[in-house]
Amino acid sequence: MHPTACSAFVPGERFDIPATGVGVLAGKTFAVKDLIDVEGRRTGGGNPVWRAAASYARRHADVVRLLLAAGARCIGKTVTDELAFSLEGANAHYGTPVNPRNPDWLPGGSSSGSAVAVATGQCDFSIGTDTGGSVRVPAAFCGVFGFRPSHGRAPIDGVLPFAPSYDTVGWFARDARLLRDIGEVLLPAAKAPAIRRVRLVDDALDQVDNIVANDMAEAASAIATDDPVKLFQEFSLVELSTAYQIVQGYEINRSLGPRIADIRPDFGMSIKARFEGVGRIGKGEYREALGIRQAFARRLVQLCLADTALIMPVSPVASLNHDETEEKLGEFYGRALGLNAVAGHSGAPQVQLGAGFGGRSIACSLLGSPGADRSLLDLAERLSRQGWTHHA
Asked: Cys staple from 115: which of 128, 142, 194, 276, with CB 3.0 to 4.6 Å?
């Protein structure tokens, strides 16, 4: 086991809050990422200094309240990368939650503890947040189901803001049926057509390692119904990634910058550098990136209609080791942020399918059109019932 490996849960944050009602989640247990308010507890954001400076939450975040009312029990808070500013899953203060697929692999972040708690069976489901891939990447690395809803669909009151125009609450489960049941509780009722067309984003395969490309091609051979599409011709992956980092960084500085300057958290080295960097993004640079984002969102809606889901990866690699070089991590971020920005820029939902625990394979994700959340979860469950999604 890696020497900095740790539990999925924040030290001292195991508790048991009983359900307040009976519903579709009766008898289930869940944990929440340490960016989400739980009444009577501090929201620590993955950083001890931040936690010490925080007030005790006066009420549950809306997402916690709804889940308790639907019959689930909350059993603790999970480790997050500091203030969610990472896709790796490491934390300089609490360590790195152990990836059960392989302890030498990073679990992915920033919802690292939430993914690991589910993957190891410590709870039935968990809640994370996803701004630039923070549910989708750890779900892929840990081999569980993960869902990022359309922007603004799931309640986010009582959640520490990061980059608000991208921020979502997402969730993890070991099976697609439970993933859908959580959606029944957290998503508004919507009349959306069933998803009947599934298409591969074939030029995404040029952006990822061979093992990931092969897994996406395998998925397409099994579930695609229509010809592939090309998504990165008018907007390159580099362009999407850069625009995302600029818009995200500008918003992070506005939402967290004053508080960081006030309490001066002792960040880990890489996280500290990232927060210092966002303060240098100018308004003109932000507006230019915002224009790219808006133009891409219009293009995505043209390609991904309401009855369509797109097969594409959320990570360019099937795994990352604890001892990856800075060069390898930088390459990972450049591609991963671009892939995940497809949903982020357009506000679209995306579901990461669960993978088998054998080998190094990584299951595919399915991207839907904005607002097609329930239809996308239905599709994931349908594929799961057909026995396709758990492959080795």
From this structure: 142
Cα atoms in the Cβ-side hemisphere of radius 13 Å centred on 277 = 12
Q: Note if 369 is an active site residue.
A: no
343 token code pair: 């949903």
Which pLDDT does position 390 carry in this prediction? 46
Residue 210 lies in a domain: yes
Domain membership flag for residue 21: yes
33-74 pLDDT, tens digit each:
999 999 999 999 999 999 999 999 999 999 999 999 999 999
Residue 392 binned pLDDT confidence (cut-offs 50, 70, 90): very low
| Per-residue CA distances from 154 to 13, 14, 160, 188, 189 (Å) | 25, 25, 15, 8, 11
Among candidate residues 86, 110, 126, 365, the one labeled active-site is: 110
Q: Is 325 exposed, middle or buried (0-12, 13-18, 19+ CB in 10 A)?
A: exposed
The total number of structural domains in the chain stands at 1
Domain with residue 337: its CATH number is 3.90.1300.10
- Told to judge if 33 belongs to the known catalytic residues of this protein, a careful annotator would answer yes
User: Per mean pLDDT, which range of 122-126, 312-316, 359-363 is the poorest?
Assistant: 359-363
- List 26's β-bridge partners, or say none: none
Q: How many residues does the chain have?
A: 392
Task: Report the chain's mean pLDDT, rounded to a whole number.
Answer: 95
Q: Could you tell me the residue range of the domain that residue 61 belongs to?
A: 5-385
pLDDT at residue 358 is higher than 90 = no
Asked whether residue 68 is domain-assigned, the answer is yes
Single out the residue of 103, 110, 168, 186 nearest to residue 377, CA to CA: 186
Which candidate in 7, 28, 33, 315 is catalytic? 33
- Answering whether pTM is above 0.85, one says yes
